[in-house]
Give the backbone structure.
Amino acid sequence: MNLTLPSTLGGHLRMVVGGQHFGLSLDRVLRVALAGDARRIAPRAGAEAWWRGAVLDGHRGVPVVGLAGLLGLRAGEAQALVFCRIGGGQIALECEGVRGIVPASVPSDALSSAWFPQGGGSVI
């Protein structure tokens, strides 16, 4: 299952990483997919723990980064892949889940426990 977001949507995608809630700017997000549905390419032996290999997207591989490992957090079971624009390419960010969208109309100082009840409200 894939969810493609409209390019005109503003705000942040709220996701769970290492049991904490983070936001990712929607201008970077291409789509969200269930991690279990992805066709995986395993990482090479000896790769960093946060390097999760790649997923096949059509006929090309997209690198997968485990955000919990990259941020030094304990990773839970990966439930979602967030496909993002980075520079001129794309990557898939592995996370424990997606919990919705924080609209652009919400001021950044309001990113509090009302929006992120289990974490610090960090925006990455």
